[in-house]
Design goal:
The chain has five helices and eight strands; from the N terminus they run ββαββααββαββα. It starts with 6 loop residues before the first strand and ends in a 14-residue tail after the last helix. Strand 3 (about 35-40) and strand 4 form a beta hairpin. The protein has a single domain, classed as Transcriptional regulator MraZ domain (Chemotaxis protein chec), CATH 3.40.1550. About 35% of the residues lie in helices and about 20% in strands. Helix 2 (about 50-65) runs antiparallel to helix 3 (about 70-80). Strands 1-7-8-4-3-5 form a six-stranded antiparallel sheet. Strands 2-6 form a two-stranded antiparallel sheet. It has helices spanning about 20-30, 50-65, 70-80, 100-105, 125-140, and strands spanning about 5-10, 15-20, 35-40, 45-50, 85, 95, 110-115, 120. By secondary structure, it is an alpha+beta fold. This is Transcriptional regulator MraZ. It comes from Hoeflea prorocentri. One of its GO terms (molecular function) is DNA-binding transcription factor activity.
Length: about 150
Amino acid sequence: MNRFLSNATNKIDAKGRVSVPAPFRNVLTRLDIQELYAIQDFVYPAITVGGPDLLDRYERQIDGGDPFSVDSNDMSLLIHGGGVFMKLDGEGRLMVSDFIRDYTGITDQVTFVGRNDHFQLWDPVCYEEKRQEALGRRMGGGRPGADQGETG
């Protein structure tokens, strides 16, 4: 499988590292992703992590617009100024930096959430709250708005 699926919660060790779940490491290996790109999610309090193709996708979006527009400049500010490169250590762990903690509220555990071609880092309590909200909307607890789509 070449997709990030499912979720798992792991503890952060005393040195501030967390083990990436084995299924996620397997996908990284299969896709030969050596360096990870991480950015703050624009919808959720989560960090989005993927390979170079994730950064390429954002850059194509920026390049498709007017380079002098506010929108293109905002995107570049967020994508280039707000993104960081990360690497797994030899044991398959990521450093949970202030960049991650400050945006997500993560303290002692990280929930890894598969999102197809990338994964996200979440505070476990926040992830469960947002997951329940999304499930409620999909199960009829709330009709999707115009910005949420109408698929189902």
